[in-house]
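Pasting as-is:
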Amino acid sequence: MTTQENSNIESNHNNKLLGAGLVSAIAASLCCITPVLALVSGASGIASTFSWLDPLRPYLIAVTILVLAFAWYQKLKLRTEEEIACACEDDEKPNFWQSKKFLGIVTFFAVVMMAFPLYADMFYPSQNQKQTIVVESDNLETATFEIKGMTCNGCASHIENDVNKLSGIVEVDASYEDADATVKYDKSKVTSEEIKAVINGTGYKVISQK
């Protein structure tokens, strides 16, 4: 087997590894990507479809980092004398899929995917844009819903976005760290059961109410 053939086999092997790394990077943040896709498509109920992946996120990120580190090592390591002596290397430039540029693009995309939970909430409308409503003190009610299935700020923002669409909502504060959402509302216009139904409609589940 020639040096060129060995190089081609190694290149194909590296590309497969990069593919596995990209899949791991996307899977690591799929639980937070899905709520944004749900917002864009209007299919709110699919938001929590991949929340089961959240416990696996550290392992998926570790796999991605290891794959990319190995790929960069392979790309930057010193060539052997046999490779340097190979005349074909002087005559033919590596194609795009074997280049550092392609590896750089893959690495950048993987980092963007792994960091997605950190900026997922920017895709949702700000509550500051919500019109202020006036509520009589006798009608002002506050309820806190304990919620199962949130995995990042994007999930919390998704719940806030959907609950705010109800009439009579004064303020919604959802937190994935605390796994709950506190809602201030006008009880003459909306009930806690209606709020609960909307939260459940996102795919996340209300397990208790205070």
